Amino acid sequence: MRKCKYCGSTRHVEKEHVQPKSKGGRKTVKACRRCNRSKSNKGLMEWFRWLKKNDLYRWRRIKNYNYRKKNAIAKKIQKVRDEG
For a surface tag, which of 17, 35, 61, 71 has the fewest beta carbons within 10 Å of its beta carbon? Predict the structure, then answer.
């Protein structure tokens, strides 16, 4: 099943560059349109910090979906969550 790597949504899933293509990114993951558009050309840590301050709904959805996971994305979410 096609699922957003960030929030778990199965609606409107598309390819998304983990590191923005404009910054030399090559690796892609599946992401829903809302996460992909929200992330835009931000790096992962930059985007997670932006979400934490500006889009609490999406931040909580992503944080809850990745709760107790051990992948690289989940570890970055935990790091941002634990920052002041």
Answer: 71
In a domain, 20, yes or no: yes
The residue written with tokens 């790597």 in the block is 5
Please indicate, yes or no, if residue 33 is contained in any of the structural domains: yes
pLDDT, tens digit, 9 for 90 and up, residues 33-73? 999 999 999 999 999 999 999 999 999 999 999 999 999 99
In a domain, 7, yes or no: no
Q: How many structural domains are present in the chain?
A: 1
Question: Which domain covers residue 30, as residue numbers?
Answer: 13-82
Tell me, yes or no, whether 5 lies in a domain.
Answer: no
Q: Is the pLDDT of residue 2 over 80?
A: yes
> pTM of the full predicted structure?
0.91
